[in-house]
Design brief:
Blueprint: H1 10-15, H2 20-35, H3 43-56, H4 62-73, H5 78-92, H6 94-107, H7 113-124, E1 131-132, E2 140-141, E3 144-150, E4 156-161, E5 166-167, E6 170-173, E7 176-177, E8 180-187, E9 189-193, E10 199-201, E11 206-209, E12 215-219, E13 225-231, E14 234-235, E15 238-241, H8 247-251
Helix pairs in contact: 3-4, 3-5, 4-6, 5-6
The protein binds manganese (II) ion (MN).
């Protein structure tokens, strides 16, 4: 990970005239230098260390709230903070965990369990999840998301599927060339051509789909899944959407 310069102004904002040296050390050294050494230790890990240190000392004031908010921004989920504070409770003291929980509940208040799983999946993946895939929702069972990755030379999108989500049987039509290539990015999913056994897709798996072949792709029942979809150039290309993959067909696949 490249080093990332953290801009902090809290020191100068609050103590700039009263304690200018302290403000400078806070903003320029603690945040500007130490926190910014993200090539050595990422922001998420630094947040984890910082909140553990604060809670252990019984510091449950506005500085803990600030660092809980940073931890959330740096990718720590609602499930994870609950686990972290529970763990700290055993080493640092039960009442400190109680005090920290009261603040953490507020910081993660608007997160639902579903959003939490989505945030955790995003952390596994370098490409964005993007927006709910409303344009094609009628051809999917379950919730999918779409993020355009490339709109020059080769059209590439990142498609994310919630557990159990899959697209309908479909055919990429073309009179010459065409078809689709999939590259697994994160999680676990399936690709199936009509009349053939389904193939598992893991991160790095490459699937070549010729034009004219009836198939579907989607997540495993128990895993989020994302693949890059490459549109292969051809003449008179179009997508022909067919019937859904029934629960009976889909449930047969699961290991
Ligand atoms: Mn396809």
């Amino acid at each position: 990970m490249a080093q990332e310069k953290i801009v902090q102004t809290a020191g100068r904002d609050q103590l700039g005239t009263f304690a200018p040296k302290f403000a400078e050390l806070n903003d320029d050294v603690l945040f500007g230098e130490v926190w910014s050494r993200t090539d050595k230790l990422g922001l998420r890990d630094r947040s984890l260390v910082t909140i553990t240190s604060l809670i252990s000392q019984g510091i449950t004031d506005s500085s803990l709230v600030f660092h809980l908010q940073s931890a959330k921004k740096n990718g720590i989920t609602r499930t994870e903070i609950a686990e972290i504070i529970t763990h700290i409770g055993f080493y640092a003291g039960w009442p400190k965990a109680w005090a920290a929980f009261n603040l953490a509940k507020g910081v993660w208040a608007e997160d639902t369990a579903g959003e939490d799983a989505k945030a955790a999946f995003q952390r596994e993946m370098i490409f964005p999840i993007g927006e709910p895939n409303t344009a094609y929702a009628q051809y999917f069972i379950g919730q999918s998301y779409l993020a355009p990755i490339s709109r020059e030379q080769v059209n590439v999108s990142n498609v994310t599927f919630e557990p159990g989500c899959r697209n309908n049987w479909h055919i990429h039509q073309a009179t010459r060339g065409g078809g689709q290539m999939l590259v697994g990015v994160a999680g676990r999913g399936w690709y199936q051509e009509e009349g053939k056994p389904a193939v598992e897709i893991l991160p790095g798996t490459v699937i070549h789909i010729p034009a004219g072949v009836k198939h579907w792709h989607g997540a495993a029942a128990d895993s989020w899944f994302a693949h890059l979809a490459f549109e292969i150039a051809g003449d008179n290309t179009s997508n022909e959407w067919l019937e859904p993959v029934t629960d009976e067909e889909y449930n047969r696949l699961q290991k």
